[in-house]
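Late entry, evening session. Most of the bench is empty. Finally got around to the prediction I had been postponing all week. Sequence below, unchanged from the version circulated by S.P.
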Amino acid sequence: MEEWPEDCKLFCLTNAEEENTHVSNMVSAEAQEKLLDWRRERSLLSSQNLVGYVLRFIKKLLNRVNSDLQERVLLYIPQIRSAKTLPYITAKEKEVALRVIIRNHQSVRLPAARQLALKQLSIREDEDGLLRCQGRLGNANLQKDT
């Protein structure tokens, strides 16, 4: 009859000196994906509500992670700061969600190579990360959301 081994190696952790592990991550800036599947969304308003709730969810998750990760996420998605905890989406949150949707759409449909081709239009990035034309319209006395 065989005997069971004395040491179970299934749950043993190895020392850091014994094992060398190499991890590499590749991030492609050109592989931007659509935020929403527009075949499933009924309207822009319902999409804004959905993105508003997603921003709230991300904000709740950020409260449970370390501050370094919080700062990195907030650098990429600064709109999370305006998320509330009310049971409904506020008008401000809908505006923020619309900006997130537009920024994603611009990054998917207008990659950096195409932006360089449109340089003559004097397109600049505003404080929300949206691309805006700075030509004659940039000099006009219009509201920001026009």
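Two things to note before I forget:
The mean pLDDT is 76.
DSSP finds five helices and two strands in the chain.
Will write this up properly tomorrow.
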